[in-house]
Amino acid sequence: MANDRPKLGILGGMGPQATLELCQRIVDYTDADRDQDHIPTLIYNDTWIPDRTGAILGGDAQRCYEALLSGGRVLEGAGCSILAIPCNTSHYFAARLQEDLGGMKLLHMVRESAAVLARRGCRRVGVLATDGTVRTGVYQRELQALGIECPPLPEEIQRRVMSIIYDEIKRGRRGTPEDFAPIDRAVREELGCDGAVLGCTELSVFRTFHGLPEFYLDALDVLARRCVTACGYPLREC
């Protein structure tokens, strides 16, 4: 393997379990026969970054951005040229981060996921994400630019999504398929969607625990695959 291939930087901690999940998937998706065939990776698991939803909706977005930028600069200074951030809500700051971290290419998980949904032929997509991601339109802008509708979830269903994220996964619990069942019914039957995106990495962790059908595109899965190809390594189909 050539030594001049990019070094991957992962700015994680949002949350820690999702960061581990991304790293495992990158390993799984790299077509490697030995240690040296894998991607050189630096992981900065910065758990002190303020909660993105709380900061953005609570008027403290600048402090959150500065923490993200600081973490990005740590990775940039360590020689990383590709940056992955396993947190959908943080992509509210993606354009600013890319501008301020000119030495690294930020892999835009939300944009990449929207493109996959478009290639699947989806026309109406349910966005399962934090209140911060939903209310700032992080996914809506990317999806609507591709001609894809994204109807808002009913308030009770959005509360259920937030509960799985914050009351279950972020607390080290697993949630249950029964927790997810009303969400599934609402997205498919009430909203009439032909696809949905797991737009929060805690939901990606939930999927690992319980499994979900192909109807649900996992944004963390998209990011893991993109990390492999962006660094110039071959994909292993799992």
TrEMBL record:
Keywords assigned: Isomerase
UniProt xrefs under InterPro entries: Asp/Glu/hydantoin_racemase, Asp/Glu_race, Asp/Glu_racemase_AS_1, Asp_race
UniProt similarity note: Belongs to the aspartate/glutamate racemases family.
Name under which the protein is recorded: Aspartate/glutamate racemase family protein
Organism: Pseudoflavonifractor gallinarum
Lineage of source species: Bacteria, Bacillati, Bacillota, Clostridia, Eubacteriales
